[in-house]
Amino acid sequence: MDLSARDLGEAPDPVNAPVRRAAGDGPAVSIVLEEVSRTSVLPLHELNRRMVLTSDLGFDSLMLQELEAGLGKRVPGFTTDEMYATGLTVERLITLVDAHGAPAPGAGAPPLRPARTEEDAAQPEPFTSEEPERWSAATARIDDFPEVARFEERADALLRGGADFPYFRVHEGKILDRTVVGGREFLSFGSYNYLGLSGHPVVGEAARRAVDRYGTSVSASRVLSGERELTVRLERTLSDFLGVEDCLVLVSGYSTNVTALGHLLGPDDLVLHDALAHNSILRGCALSGAARRPFAHNDTAELERLLRANRARYRRVLIVVEGAYSMDGDLVDLPAVIELKKRYGALLMVDEAHSVGTVGEYGRGVGEFFGVERCDVDLWMGTLSKAFASCGGYLGGSARTVRWLRHTLPGFVYSVGLSPANAAAALAAAGLIVAEPGRVRALRRNAELFRDLALAAGLPIGTSRHTPIVPCVLGDSDRTLRVADRVYARGVIADAIFHPAVEEGQARLRFFLTSEHRADDIGRAVRVLAEEVASSGG
Q1: Cα separation of 223 and 94, whole Å?
Q2: Cα–Cα–Cα angle for 47, 50, 55, nearest 5°?
Q3: pLDDT tens-digit series, residues 414-438
Q4: Active site includes 40?
Q5: Is 341 an active-site residue?
Q6: Using one digit for the tens of pLDDT, what is the confidence trace for 147-156?
Q7: Of 198, 239, 326, 477, which one is the catalytic site residue?
Q8: Which end of the chain has fewer beta carbons closer than 10 Å to its terminal beta carbon, N or C?
Q9: Exposed/middle/buried for 162, CB within 10 Å: 0-12, 13-18, 19+?
Q10: pTM of the entire structure?
């Protein structure tokens, strides 16, 4: 029999117990609890005051930003430097909001304005004295945004160690296993030209012929005058390659995620996504207005807990995962996610930006790798800028779903169609992937060689497996930048990755392998990396 604190004669713990609003609570309690509940998608009765927003409630930096914005709407002018502190609790947040001066229920609201007529609707609403004066000075010029100042502080701090700025270097030609910067040749591990098809003569010739015939742009939405035979063939080829009924191609991989999520979901819905989800997924969630909740990376047990607790509370629940994670270089446990999707009646979207063309016996992605039924995933998303040597994104699924998207998806309907050169390049690349399966095998062999050598050298490569992405996780940003700078000085390019692309304390160098790398060059790169990591301390 379960016994309560009262049954045992103990005084209940008012801080660690689930938070219940009492008659004596100030308005800050209600405001904070409601906003934390809304952002975390946890019911109020599951919250307690000792909970830490990050470690106990799973808040990531964007959720903290969303929470602060929500509090700011209800408590005008509220902001705090403590919002992103790792130990911030619900109790402390209540104290901060109360100290700022939370309005009493109904108090402090601006007076209602008269309803606007149709004639008024055509005119911008004027700035009036009813608006808080705090906005005028803070937002009059972009240069004066506090976000700009914070960026400059971070950039300055990053370079105080004397390393060169590692971004926006100008490359002077095609990037395969090598590249040229400033007239000097480097070994390149910074490009996701995984199969060496960007720069392949067949792909280049296809793009040139397309420009000669169709011009450099289709100059219209595909719904109207922008449809071309090349793009129709590309969609059929991708459908066959993936094993789905139909595909839709768009001009950008990033915007494909944003517009798809913004279109599929609304305020009555919930997105459950891996904590390492790409920024485009998070921005799509924000556009949709849906609640969102991250689960720990590849933690299907936590995903199940979230589904069990929340499925009945929302109209639609969409699970979003990536085939291969671009920062850690590991794969989703797709069969386990599909099983949960079926059990709880959820939808499933798989982002294959880094897994299509690279994973599976013939490069057909995680669906091929795990041998799943393609129809068990509602939407397969991918990009054309990596293995397909072009630019753009695609969505694949059932014929009925894709037909609906083709006529209603805002980022497709209201956008120019894919350029002829990009459509032709992707089409030619897809043909080469099928015709030359040795490219995928060479890529897999090179990635395994790099991993084996890195492990033998004692390098911290995390959970990388079955993908052409291998990180060297050093943790400290300053140390990571120093190592990247020294490796670059010795003729090897690998990108230094810092927060917010990864969590604080997880800075790393990231290596992209390609089918074009040679075994001796891979050995040299690992040797240089190991020497510089060892000499950097830490």
Answers
A1: 52
A2: 85
A3: 999 999 999 999 999 999 999 999 9
A4: no
A5: no
A6: 888 888 888 8
A7: 326
A8: N
A9: exposed
A10: 0.84
